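Could you help me review a protein record that somebody else here produced? Here is the record exactly as it was handed to me:
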Amino acid sequence: MSDIGVRIRVLRKAAGVSQEAVARQTGITLKAFGELERGEVQDPHYSTLRDIANALDTSVAELVGEKELAAPLADAPVGAEELGEVLDRIAARSRHLSDANLVRSLQSASDAAVRRTVREVRQELALLMPELEYLGKTLGPQDAGYMRFNKAHSWVSGQVLALKIFLMMWDEPEAKEAAADVRARLGELAKVG
């Protein structure tokens, strides 16, 4: 089984989705999806990977095991178009952080679901920080997109703070480690804004 196939299978099972459901959602045959997941397809087409990533609510970079590119180079000017692209990447990478009911849903979730969600939020934060740091260093209050960045930054900071408070009350051994990581990210966010 290829690494891509293994990652697809792990992500699919973590999402609780059948091969048939992913195949149907992506428009490929069940046979083709099974071959891809078993590693029988050595070089899948990008559009197929993109569709599978969308179906599994992840990125192509995660499917193929590559680090996603961070924001454009820091010395590049940030125009409205670039700002929009960066903020769109932030939104696309923040499935849980963009959920207004994140903490409320965690309060009624099983311990396993909470652990999975916290792990995924920590991964989201790791991907978001370079983008937010880039914008924080590049934009000033005089820039046209500053208010939009500030709103996105405030939203992420609020979600991280709510998650930190939830983790402090959650009675699980790994909650301390997760809370410490979230607290560190909150400190990083404060420096960016």
About this structure: Residues 67-77 have pLDDT under 50 and may be disordered. The chain has two domains: 3-64, 80-192.
